[in-house]
Amino acid sequence: MERSKKPRILVVDDHEDNIELLRARLEARGYEVEGATDGQAALEMVDKVCPDLILLDVMMPRMDGMEVARRLKARIANKEIPFIPIIMQTALDSTEQKVEGLDAGAIDYVTKPINFAELEARVSSQLHVKSLQDALAASRKELSDLNDKLREISLTDGLTQIENRRSLEDRLHDMWQHSVRLHEPIALVMCDIDKFKTVNDQYGHQAGDSVLKEFAQLLKGEAREIDRVGRYGGEEFLLILPGTVLDAAVTFAERLREKVERHTFTYAGGTLCRTMSCGVAGSPHPRVKDQEALLKASDDALYVAKETGRNRVIRFDGAEFNAHMQGKGNDQSDAEKPASKSAANAGTAAPGSPPRVKASSEGPRPST
Ligand code: GH3
Ligand code: MG
Ligand code: MG
Predict the structure, then answer these.
(1) Which domains, ranges and CATH numbers included, belong to the chain?
(2) What's the gap in Å between 104 CA and the centre of ligand 1?
(3) pLDDT digits over 143-171, tens only?
């Protein structure tokens, strides 16, 4: 049921007669009125009817008005309920009681016997404050929702709708710290679609986009809830596997690789197949001292997977990885990569060259 537009006032007084008197006056002024005869009932009514204003008596059995005001003030501060102005009805014209009421959370007071003209003026003015506060809270919420949305967008890859590189790096930072603190293993699987450029060349960029989207979902579908899967670059994806030792990550990557190999991708004009190469690295490892080293280790392993024929999973610091790096004249701890296939074949390293330069020995997988 839709709430009426009339401002709703909760009158709290242990004398029913007083409630009825105020109800008659306030309803005549176009307000909706609810009543409660003690403090406890008042608190329950606040949750039930969400009043716009409370006219609160001080002296009441079970729980007095001061305590009601204090509890509501705490709940408003904790954002459990919206701001509700409280006007105290003090029986005595005592400064002490007014001060205590204002301290407890009341915004204003009227003294008994109530002067109705004065009460109406105060009610009207406090309802105006309430409407301003509600508008402020609504625009704050809108701004905060917008900020959340912007943050989400800044961490999401526009095409695949999975995490982007920035998000992955943030998460890796946190997960690395966590693993160090708790002495837990952590592993990375860096995946790169093989010969992806030929998808664009042969089937068009749109087909390439479709494959990337489907590929992202395929990886996500294989990962556990606690793993992170994101698009690290163009056709390169990273999986962060917390609590996973290197051996288990290699087994997982091999399963993923087989899954991709068997998968048929669909695009607007038909279907096609692709393979992927993976580099796997993990911690603890004597040569992986920080998160950057872990990332680089997985990247290096991926580079070797590409160099040694693609559609493969290579483990950082494994026999094949080390043999390949040594064959290139690269010490294992040396980060330099060959500049080209010919340089790689000649066993010479080209300092400062970009990582993972493509070998051209293997043609694209036949498309279906
Ligand atoms: P390799 O097996 O060595 O990884 O070869 P590759 O062709 O996959 O790698 P290369 O780096 O030569 O080419 C990557 C291609 O990915 C080129 C680029 O146009 C394409 N690509 C990157 N991002 C996107 C994208 O968002 N959409 C599409 N359709 N293509 C993309
Ligand atoms: Mg590729
Ligand atoms: Mg690539």
Answers:
(1) 8-150 (3.40.50.2300), 165-334 (3.30.70.270)
(2) 65
(3) 999 999 999 999 999 999 999 999 999 99
